Amino acid sequence: MNIRAVIVEDSRLARNELKELIKKHDGIELLGEAENVDLGYELIQKERPDLLFLDINMPEKDGFELLEMLDDVPITVFTTAFDEYAIKSFEYNALDYLLKPINEKRFAMALDKVKAKLAGNKDGIIKTEQLSYNSQIFIKDGESCWLVRIRDISHFEIVGNYTRVFFEDKKPLLYRSLNQVEEKLPEQSFFKANRQQIVNTNFINNVVPWFNGKLKLQMKNGEEIEVSRRQSYIFKDKMSL
């Protein structure tokens, strides 16, 4: 088995230590390294590795933000000097969590876990499954974090390369396109009203006929969302008996 790996770590010393550990094991190929999240994102998109060694505490953007940017997440082993991130790391489906300085025995144990994972998953990629209506998602926007149930989100709205999430009185941004968000939402409860917005149909308070065969949705939180003409026909069909 040949494991294709990358390192995303801001410390050159820590990167060098990881590379020395990797050299001691057959069957693992280091494809590249990056010193920050943005370069790490480009490296992962280019190489599509099986395994990601990822530091958590990095300047500007942290390791959790990198995982949120990815559609297909490699098997991830966190490397950090701070043990307070341990529980949160497993919310991101991390396979293992290595505290610096990393000893050889602990590193070998992590690789054994990776090999076992890859043995049952030949492409090494963890595909994100479609969420259920009761699923929770983790959202980090700046210094603020939330665990939000899908059912509590009224709608999503595209903002450049980001998607704004509306729940309660909050409007944080996700580093995801609207299409990427739509792929993961439960189809029975969410509807793409137009190219810019997806609505939770359980938050619709009223539907009003609009111009040129279009509809306007009046939401329970006071928002009004216009449905495109094409989507208005689909909406009528979806919501009819």
TrEMBL record:
One annotated GO molecular function: phosphorelay response regulator activity
Q: Which residues form the HTH LytTR-type domain?
A: 137-241
The alphabetical list of record keywords is:
Phosphoprotein
Signal sequence, start to end: none
SMART domains, from UniProt? Answer: LytTR (SM00850), REC (SM00448)
Q: Which domain of life is it from?
A: Bacteria
Per UniProt, residues of the Response regulatory domain are: 4-115
Q: What is this protein called?
A: Chemotaxis response regulator protein-glutamate methylesterase of group 2 operon
Q: Which residues carry this modification: 4-aspartylphosphate?
A: D55
State the taxonomy lineage: Bacteria, Pseudomonadati, Bacteroidota, Flavobacteriia, Flavobacteriales
**Matching InterPro entries, A to Z?**
CheY-like_superfamily (IPR011006), LytR-like (IPR046947), LytTR_DNA-bd_dom (IPR007492), Sig_transdc_resp-reg_receiver (IPR001789)
Organism encoding this protein: Flagellimonas maritima
**Record flagged with keyword Thylakoid:** no
Give start-end ranges for the coiled-coil region(s): none
Keyword check for Lipoprotein, yes or no.
no
